[in-house]
UniProtKB/TrEMBL annotation:
Pfam families xrefs: WD40
Bilayer-spanning residue ranges: none
UniProt keyword Repeat, yes or no: yes
InterPro entries recorded: WD40/YVTN_repeat-like_dom_sf, WD40_repeat_dom_sf, WD40_rpt
Protein name: Uncharacterized protein
Keywords: Repeat, WD repeat
Organism expressing this protein natively: Opuntia streptacantha
Residue windows of the WD repeats: 14-55, 79-101
Amino acid sequence: MSQKRPPPDPLAVLRGHRASVMDVCFHWSKPLLFSGSTDGELRTWDTIQHRTLSSAWVHSAAHGIIAVASGPSLGEDKIISQGRDGTVKLWDIENGALSREPLVTIKTNSYNFCKLSLVKKPTVQVKQVEPFASAVRVPEEQPDNSMGLNDEAHIEGPKHVAVAGARSQRGVQHSRKVL
């Protein structure tokens, strides 16, 4: 019988939240860690110095934060928080500090434990034989909930979708918003 080794000691213990932490997320390119707690507090941590850079109550204390997300598709200085208050909020995090107001707030009608998922809007690029001509084909939802393709010369505007869980397909359609 093999002996189990004890778990390694932690490299650092980050202290500061007054309530239980529900979700954490590393920044994709900076030495930052984001944590969201049940009292609605979102903290930004410096992972090199192991200290809090900023802290703010961004969702109501009665509901708290379900999820936090960061990724290259959002940009260098953006983070998303999802609260059990039924909102998803996009924040600016210039120099690790949270903006005072969210850049975008989306009502999702999702009040449960389903966490958000950040995905790129699906696109298909088709290059034509003629020089300098290209077309972009984008899947779009049809009235019967199937996916189809439409031709557009280019796509402007939002290119990402934040989806928060819902119980029915109808609910998902209403909670899906493009950032």
